[in-house]
């Protein structure tokens, strides 16, 4: 039935997912990883759909790779557990989520839990002790701070290595199956050039890889050394495995967005998600357009405001005419201006016309919608994807 | 059943609505308006719930006031049409929404449509001409630009008055029931002090009121002269009716938020919505806390970044200790720091502890959730409100 709906008939604002673009992004990331000898642990947080999750493993050239994913919430873990059996929950576990996490862990091969503090370890052990009927070991990753300073234990602290000892050879060794170490280079979004990102990629690989090597030298088994962020995964060093890295965990690359374009990680034609909006009024006297996609459709992420050559403020650009930019976003409407000040062609941009917007941050934008209209290369809607929502 | 759930048992992140606070905010705004001799056209966009919509008319001291509301989307108009019969749709109508709007208009006393361009008028007339079975007149407001320069026709242009003529005495007079004029002072959020907001309130009242007087002097009937924005409605001039204003249309005041606090429009105890989050890790070595409420729970609205004495960046503050501020928000986690640099008391803020956050912008934050946990003065959850979602 969906086949009969045309883009021009859609209620706006809404999201278009460009199917061939997304699939190509997935293939390219897999090829890049495999040519470097590492696996992709595909992140689901950007799209939150089973369909695109499967695209992330299409034409997987490394036939031996385990299909392994990463999610940003326990709700996602539950959602994806029907189709994936090796899942990593990306946030350090809090005691109030231990029970729910364990139930998911029981249902699949392994729900890997992240820890970076003794309290995480204690809460898992306490659950196991008070529920002796559950004998399955917790499957865990140690989160390492590679310099982003958001989450993760410092690899320089002895207490970090003590944690690994505790769960592998120490008092709690019977409760855990230590899977390896993980870092996230979120600070890559603050880089100014692809060269800076490339340096950061080496730095993350070095910090996390070196800590993996240290643990191995101390006699601990470290199966996975996982690094990532889409910017870093777009600029990996050729000798990645020499650092000891075994897998990367990008997510945004499925959709990309304006931030990734501005950082030099993709081109406009690689962006797999557009917000479709309608022009609801025009103001030739101010050379401005008003559209029906505001902060609740685009998100209010201001994007890479640190980039010097960027037109700001800016909540997205118009796909068909990148000189047109969203300069202000209210809850349900946004204001579009010509970034170089040239007169807008109001014979083309009329009230009722639809425009496509490349959003600043596709992870947040996609999360604003209850479904995605999926289009093929001929711009025909041929599927609807329903993302996981909430917590 | 909901009565048995305690705050400490809630899955985080989630939203708490402070029932007595919200009801008091509604009563105070009504009292303020009525003491000045104007009506409140209550905006639904912040909370999007029927329950709070009704709170906005509780203890309405002006017994003669029509119960009239304003909404930000047609989806909201449909949602609220079961309980409210006089609704204003706040965005200029686009041709693709004319049909849906008219169907709602048929179902209630009046769905008022906003216009600021001849194309809006034309599209409504065209609908009526091609659907002659529908004889009900369109009920419309003219949107006036009072200086915010987002939407609205300029009161200084002859073409604006020509539009009023066209639909009241001109060619299209049989299709329309002209309800009056409307302005929105969104630029009040860029003010620096309550005094500046007070000046802006006078300015909006003057610009919009004067245009209403001009239309009347030209012989047009202007029943409603509507101004607003929560900041302006918090600092109205005592002689508001002398400007010709008949109604105000605030929305955010039901919940308020950190931006309203920082602008001087409310106190922390007036904020009616808190985001409940769990501490998922602590980093004493960096004097930082990690919580499980990120951009998808708080929104990524950076708030009043223009205020000079503000700690920035800042995506919210901790209710119980306003020295603790969210300095960085990722998709699902945020980083909390002590804003004056004093050591965080980690014996109080432990992994697993819950904290309440005052968000920057409650309209966007509330929209991130599928339901609100409503608490009474004793912090017991006694109701759940389900807001309207999407478009």
Give a verbal description of the structure:
- The structure is a homodimer of 391-residue chains.
- With 391 residues, chain A is an alpha/beta fold.
- The first copy, chain A, folds into 2 domains: 68-254, TIM Barrel (Alpha-Beta Barrel), CATH 3.20.20.10; 268-385, Beta Barrel (Lyase, Ornithine Decarboxylase, Chain A, domain 1), CATH 2.40.37.20.
- Chain A has helices at residues 19-36, 50-55, 74-80, 98-107, 118-130, 158-168, 194-217, 230-233, 258-263, 295-298, 362-366, and strands spanning 14-18, 39-40, 42-43, 69-71, 86-92, 110-115, 138-143, 176-182, 224-227, 247-248, 273-283, 288-291, 316-318, 321-329, 334-338, 354-359, 372-375, 381-385.
- In chain A, the strands form 2 sheets. The first copy, chain A, has a 9-stranded parallel β-sheet. In chain A, strands 11-12-15-14-13-16 form a 6-stranded antiparallel beta barrel.
- The two termini of chain A are 30 Å apart.
In summary, what is this structure?
Chains A, B: This is D-serine dehydratase. The first copy, chain A, is an alpha/beta fold. Helices cover 28% and strands 23% of the residues of chain A.
Quote the CATH topology of the largest domain in chain A.
TIM Barrel
The CATH superfamily of the largest domain in chain A is known as Alanine racemase
The tally of domains of chain A stands at 2
β-sheet strand percentage of chain A: 15-25%
The major β-sheet of chain A equals: 9 strands, parallel
Query: Portion of residues in helices of chain A?
Result: 25-40%
Radius of gyration of chain A: 22 Å
Mean pLDDT of chain A: 96
Poorly predicted ranges of chain A (pLDDT <50, ≥5 residues)? Answer: none
Q: What is the CATH-assigned architecture of the largest domain in chain A? A: Alpha-Beta Barrel
Number of strands of chain A: 18
What class would the helix/strand composition of chain A place it in?
alpha/beta
List the helices and strands of chain A in order. Answer: EHEEHEHEHEHEHEHEHEHEEHEEEEHEE
Give the helix tally of chain A: 11
Pair with the biggest interface: A-B, 61 and 61 residues
Oligomer: homodimer
What distance separates the N and C termini of chain A? 30 Å
Characterize the overall form of chain A.
Answer: elongated
């Amino acid at each position: 039935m969906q086949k009969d709906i045309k883009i021009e008939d859609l209620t706006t604002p809404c999201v278009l997912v460009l199917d061939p673009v997304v699939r190509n992004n997935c293939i390219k990331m897999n090829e890049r990883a495999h040519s470097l000898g590492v696996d992709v642990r595909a992140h689901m947080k950007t799209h939150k759909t089973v369909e695109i999750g499967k695209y992330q493993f299409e034409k997987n050239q490394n036939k031996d790779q385990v299909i392994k994913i990463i999610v940003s919430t326990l709700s996602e873990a539950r959602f994806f557990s029907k189709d994936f059996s090796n899942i990593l929950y990306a946030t350090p576990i809090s005691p109030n989520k231990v029970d729910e996490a364990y139930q998911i862990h029981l249902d699949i091969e392994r729900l890997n839990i992240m820890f970076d503090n003794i309290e995480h370890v204690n809460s898992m052990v306490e659950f196991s002790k008070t529920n002796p009927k559950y004998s399955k070991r917790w499957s865990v990753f140690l989160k390492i701070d590679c310099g982003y300073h958001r989450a993760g234990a410092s690899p320089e602290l002895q207490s970090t290595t003590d944690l690994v000892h505790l769960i592998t050879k120490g008092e709690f060794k019977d409760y855990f199956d230590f899977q390896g170490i993980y870092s996230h280079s979120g600070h890559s979004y603050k880089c100014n050039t692809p060269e800076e990102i490339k340096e950061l990629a080496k730095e993350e690989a070095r910090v996390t890889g070196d800590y993996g090597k240290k643990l191995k030298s101390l006699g601990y088994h470290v199966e996975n050394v996982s690094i990532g962020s889409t910017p870093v995964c777009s600029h990996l060093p050729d000798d990645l495995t020499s650092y000891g890295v075994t897998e990367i965990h990008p997510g945004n690359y499925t959709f990309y967005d304006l931030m990734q374009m501005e950082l030099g990680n993709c081109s406009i034609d690689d962006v797999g998600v557009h917000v479709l909006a309608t022009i609801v009024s025009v103001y030739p006297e101010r050379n401005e357009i008003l559209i029906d996609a505001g902060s609740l459709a685009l998100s209010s992420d201001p994007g890479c405001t640190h980039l010097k050559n960027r037109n700001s403020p800016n909540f997205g650009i118009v796909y068909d005419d990148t000189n047109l930019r969203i300069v202000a976003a209210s809850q349900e409407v946004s204001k579009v201006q010509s970034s170089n000040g040239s007169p807008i062609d109001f014979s083309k941009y009329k009230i009722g016309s639809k425009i496509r917007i490349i959003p600043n941050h596709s992870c947040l934008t996609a999360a604003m919608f209850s479904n995605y209209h999926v289009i093929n290369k001929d711009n025909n809607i041929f599927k609807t994807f329903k993302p996981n929502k909430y917590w």
